[in-house]
Amino acid sequence: MTLKRFYILILALVLVVGVQAQNNVREVFIKDIRISANNYHAYPDKDLPKLTPAPAGYKPFFMNHYGRHGSRWLIDPNDYKIPVQQLEKGERNGKLTKRGKEVLDACRMMLEASNLRLGELSDIGAEQHQGIARRMFLNFPEIWEGNACVDARSTVVIRCILSMLNETDMLKSLNPSLRITTDASEHDMYYMNYHDTVARAAQKAARPAVNELKDKIFTPKKLEKMTSRLFTDKKFVRDSIDSFRFEYFLFDVVSNMQSHHAFDGMDLYTGVFTVDDATDFWTYNNARWYIYSGNTPLTNHTGPLAHRHLLRNFVEAADRAIASGTNSATLRFGHESVVLPTVCLMGLNGMDYETTDLETLAEHWRSYEVFPMAANIQMVYYRKAGSDDILVKILLNEHEASLPIATDCAPYYHWTDVRQHFLNRLEIPNN
């Protein structure tokens, strides 16, 4: 084989692998298109895996936790307004298809229902946290025995506070003897939801790379195909409709319908967005979140490091719990914009993946695996009578997760190793 033919073969194999990986994402969405909602995906609490028993003699005594608020109403008023405004242009000019008229009616209903509720926790969001708390109690009963102390803290945002209260109320109902404290204060925001100016500047500088990807995905031809399902006149759309902005906000609205019982059974995917469309929107959103949260040279790795204060707080809380010798829990409630970069900083499940190539990102890094509504990190600590060796297991959305460090008892790790791994991640200039 000549060297040239060898290189051609290698290139072909790379292309095949890339296509297969991208198709794997599409296959996920074929099974459940709602997963393409990404951070709007309702918490997947069905068919959770059975947890691996602890090594002989080890019992859980402490939980270190950070959880995202549950399902919510959309935050940006434009999400609800723009689809209505754009479709009403078509209605006034007699340019809507039958499906377009149906979608307009549904969007009007959701716009009205969202009045004065932007960003608030939904009914399903509350139920998600009640279920998570119940399973935490049942999975690790030793942590919640007797008059265990539970330190629960939230960011100052109401949906996070209500998420916290739904969990602590459930825990209290299961064991009235628990000593639970709750708090939501600006005092704790430096680690609960830190806004790093260096990271923000780096993310802004990297946006052109995401915009370039967007333009490659959402060509005029592709946008025209999508809008033709709702509008009858292509020229009218070109002249009067901001196609990408309209479709993007509409996709958000459709994606987030799964956050509300009131919209159960209402299908706005059919005849509006295909699986290919959903894959395209997710691919673009995945890249946007990677720029914000991922371990990429495009932002000098600042996304994960922006949440170093939270990781340090995890270490400090664990040190206190271990020294106390009692069972307890530290619960924190915040946002997906903290969960995702913290997972990347920890290196859970390979989410510390590093690249500058956004076109192949989905082959290696998929944000929907980390931060659905009510996403949560549960670090569960175990001890054994007569031993100083503390073990820890990390659950990501109630699935056992892996760290990039050695262990002889997976999915359990020796806390001394995990602690050092975390501290190593915090050793950055000007920290």
Structure notes:
The protein has 431 residues and is α/β, with parallel strands linked by helices. The chain has a domain at 43-73 and 119-229 and 272-426: Rossmann fold (3-Layer(aba) Sandwich). Helix content is 49%, strand content 12%. β6 (391-396) and β7 (399-400) form a beta hairpin. α2 packs antiparallel against α3 and α13 runs antiparallel to α15 (415-426).
Quick overview:
By secondary structure, the chain is of the alpha/beta class. It has 15 helices and 8 strands. It has a domain at 43-73 and 119-229 and 272-426: Phosphoglycerate mutase-like (Rossmann fold, 3-Layer(aba) Sandwich).
CA-to-CA gap between the ends?
A: 53 Å
- The geometry reads as globular
Secondary-structure arrangement, i.e. CATH architecture of the domain at 43-73 and 119-229 and 272-426: 3-Layer(aba) Sandwich
Give the count of helical stretches. Answer: 15
Low-confidence segments = 1-22
Order of helices and strands: HEHHHEHEHHHHHHHHEHEEEEH
Q: Main β-sheet: number of strands, strand sense, barrel status? A: 8 strands, mixed
The portion of residues assigned to helices is: 40-55%
What is the residue-averaged pLDDT?
94
Q: For this structure, what is the CATH homologous superfamily of the domain at 43-73 and 119-229 and 272-426?
A: Phosphoglycerate mutase-like
Q: Which structural category fits the helices and strands? A: alpha/beta
Features:
disordered N terminus, 8 strands, eight-stranded mixed β-sheet, alpha/beta
Please write out the topology.
Layout: H1 3-31, E1 58-68, H2 77-92, H3 98-113, H4 123-139, E2 149-154, H5 158-174, E3 179-184, H6 189-192, H7 197-217, H8 220-227, H9 234-240, H10 243-256, H11 275-293, H12 302-305, H13 308-324, E4 328-334, H14 336-346, E5 376-384, E6 391-396, E7 399-400, E8 412-414, H15 415-426
Helix pairs in contact: 1-11, 2-3, 2-10, 4-5, 7-11, 13-15
